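I have been asked to look over a protein record a colleague put together. Alongside the sequence sits a line of tokens, each denoting a local backbone shape. Please read both lines and tell me whether the tokens look consistent with the sequence. Take the sequence as given and treat only the tokens as open to question. I have pasted the whole thing underneath without changing anything:
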Amino acid sequence: MRPDKVLTIGIDIDGTVTSPSSIVPMMNESFGKDLRYEDCYEYNLANVYNITDEEFDQWLEDNGERLYDEAPVHGSADRILQSWHPHYKLVYISAREARHRDVTINWFSRYSIPYHEVDLIGSHDKLAAAKRWGVDLFLEDRLENALQLSQALQIPVFLFDTPYNQGELPSLIHRVSTWEEVHDYVERLSLRKSSV
């Protein structure tokens, strides 16, 4: 990266900017379960809730708008993203579908989440979008995405620790528990880049 280039940060939304546990109460309500966030040991919630992928897709079709509207902010994401906005380019790349743009932008506005770009790609394959936006690092909660992005782009990925993303990580993926940890990493990375 050239020293004069602004650091471009790719950011997932669900489970990264929003609390990763926010889907559980709604799914419990819909499927008559009493699961805890800690019981969500894999990303595919159809397996966790013992339903078909089609049933989950239909549930998301019916409840996505409410889920995206009611999700709480993940920790201090709002404050830290506000502090980054003047210094870095913030590009949100999400598996949400384009039809959920209004509810997404309204949620960002409600919580004063700043952005430069919001790319709702409707797929978990974020590689093409990350390349298109030229991201220098990525924030994610899905292990498969973190592995793909770090390997294909040779960029650091910060993986928010959840019950569903456990496993060995290669050196470019950094497991983090809080937004403060990510902030410290990004500040160090930014300082290193600017001194090159």
